[in-house]
User: Which sequence fits this backbone?
């Protein structure tokens, strides 16, 4: 889903690579300072959620969906009002989950509940330079200046923002814009597949603080980290 956010759909969909040219980190920090100095109390969090194997693989084809995951990510969706995707992830998520929410065609009640939670999110933002049309009225496309757009979204009133997948979140991590990380670890070792931040070099290490953890009966562990 992404999906991961890739949320849960990340388990069913292929992650797509989107390219973007960010401003240098000092410029990003200047923009952050500009926004946070004005109305800090209005700033919304940008949350990144992803499913991983125990050995760090984030390839959704190597993972197994289950009710624990649907319930966890469904709860996460209910706490946000904006989803951020790249083009291909958006096209795979939509109309898959809205259709399931409408038809209640999931294999389990937990999957149907997740679909309803996904469909209830108020806004979807898609970063794409090639997407011309969107299917949902609550969706808008942004084509350039992702950093500025995310900072503006954070400044708006409302619930938090959720992103998933790998490529767009990786670039947001590089820009210092992700406030919270949700790593959902499955009890499986695959010994292959894509890793988070593969081929990416951060300018400096990013220290995180463990804010919460939960162990599910299936052996899945959900970890919530915030910036240290």
Assistant:
């Amino acid at each position: 889903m992404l999906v991961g956010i890739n949320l849960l759909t990340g388990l069913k969909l292929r992650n797509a690579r989107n390219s973007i040219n960010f401003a240098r980190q000092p410029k990003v920090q200047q923009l952050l300072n500009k926004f946070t100095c004005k109305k800090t109390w209005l700033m919304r969090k940008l949350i990144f959620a992803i499913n991983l194997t125990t050995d760090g693989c984030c390839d959704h084809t190597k993972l197994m969906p289950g009710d624990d995951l649907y319930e966890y990510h469904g709860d996460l969706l209910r706490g946000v009002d904006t989803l951020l995707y790249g083009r291909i992830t958006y096209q795979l998520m939509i109309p898959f989950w809205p259709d399931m929410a409408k038809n209640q065609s999931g294999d389990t009640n937990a999957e149907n509940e997740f679909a309803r939670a996904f469909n209830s999110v108020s806004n979807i933002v898609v970063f794409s330079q090639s997407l011309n049309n969107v299917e949902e009225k609550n969706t808008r496309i942004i084509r350039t200046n992702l950093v500025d757009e995310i900072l503006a979204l954070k400044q708006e009133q409302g619930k938090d923002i959720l992103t998933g997948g790998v490529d767009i979140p990786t670039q947001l991590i590089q820009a210092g814009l992700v406030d919270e990380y949700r790593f959902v670890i499955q009890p499986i070792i695959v010994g292959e597949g894509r890793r988070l931040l593969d081929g990416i070099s951060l300018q400096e290490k990013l220290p995180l603080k463990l804010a919460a953890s939960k162990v599910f009966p299936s052996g899945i562990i959900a970890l919530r980290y915030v910036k240290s």
In short: The CA atoms of residues 101 and 116 lie 5 Å apart. The chain is about 30% helix and 20% strand. The longest helix spans residues 25-36. The mean pLDDT is 85.
